[in-house]
Amino acid sequence: MILSRNGKVVLATLAVLALAVTAYSAGKAWPPAQKVMRAERFELVAADGQVRGAMWVQPDGTPRAVLYDEHGRELWAAPAQTEAATQGASAPIVNGWRRVASWSGTGPKNTEKFFVRAPWKIVWDTRPHPQFGNMNFIIHIHGDKGMPYLAANVIGADQGETIQHESGTYYLKISGSQPYTITVYEKVGAK
Q1: What are the phi and psi torsion angles at 43 (to 5°)?
Q2: What is the Cα–Cα distance from 72 to 88, expressed in whole angstroms?
Q3: pTM of the predicted structure, to 2 decimals
Q4: Whole domain around residue 17: which residue ranges?
């Protein structure tokens, strides 16, 4: 693995390594040399379709590479995780759910992208604005696989959760001006 001076991973090296391992383990010849291979995200997938590794560039421009065990737990990552992005492997497990990311605030926001395994859920809580009272609070889930999904749309004090059934990379678009807390959890041991 080659690391640059500021700690960013050279993604091309890991991509070539992943291709070599895949080709070797499948007993196939190395594909013809290509000058450039490009994608927004690379995933290393086991024979059963389970994602065991991924590489992508985070919204702040930092490259990220992660390897997962058979239960979806993070085995290795570079660079190290940031608290808001994905806390998965280091977060405690409560009633079979592990916290992936959490946000709180009072205004509109697009969260950082996060990778999560299915099933996963969003748990949210909102209260009236201290100065302006009841206002609208909306959460949209945006992913790589199509249209946004409405997870919450309430006015005033409310709380709830919604369970999702597709693994992937997502971000949340939060609209409204009420104070809120939102936490994303993934089910531990789910396949």
Answers
A1: -130, 135
A2: 9
A3: 0.55
A4: 11-78
